[in-house]
Amino acid sequence: SSSKSAPTNNDRNINNGAAVGEIIKVKGDTLPNGKHTVAIVSGLFSMEDDIRQHTGRKVTSVAKPEEEGVVDGSFGKMGKCKVLFENGISAEAVGSRVKMPERET
After folding, report:
1. Residue 91: helix, strand or coil by DSSP?
2. Which residues partner with 30 through β-bridges?
3. How many other C-beta atoms lie within 10 A of the C-beta of residue 92?
4. What is the pLDDT of residues 40-77, one digit of tens each?
5. Could you give the maximum distance between any two Cα atoms of the chain, in Å?
6. What is the DSSP annotation of 39-56?
7. What is the structure's pLDDT at 104?
């Protein structure tokens, strides 16, 4: 299908065990490069997930340039999470996808 809806819980694990989410807003400090340090991401977790158990997991933006961040905790009650981007994430990234690789066992 060509629809670009947010991933549902049913299809969130098809990506080689990696979860895919979407940046819904950027916030936090603005770096000298004009980018923000925090992105709010939906779709990586369900409401049932304990996001605290995933703190520190790597998240990569799909948009170019690829930015790398880490899960910093939950945001609200709907499975959204905060992702810290040390080098920043631009406001243009809002609406783009991020992926979280499967945890190494």
Report:
1. helix
2. 36
3. 11
4. 999 999 999 999 999 999 999 998 888 999 999 999 98
5. 41
6. EEEESSS-TTS-GGGGTT
7. 66
Q: Nearest Cα to 71, choosing from 92, 50, 91, 93?
A: 50
Whole-number average pLDDT of the chain? 86
pLDDT at 16 (0 to 100): 57
Look at the alpha carbons of 77, 72, 38, 42 in this order and tell me if their dihedral is positive or negative. Answer: negative
Residues 24, 13, 36: CA angle, nearest 5 degrees: 25
Residue bearing tokens 């899960």: 71
- Select from 55, 57, 62 the least CA-distant residue to 22: 62
Note the residue count of the chain.
105
Contact residues for 28 (Cβ-Cβ < 8 A; gap 6+): 36, 37, 38, 84
Measured from the Cβ of residue 76, the count of other Cβ atoms closer than 10 Å reads: 11
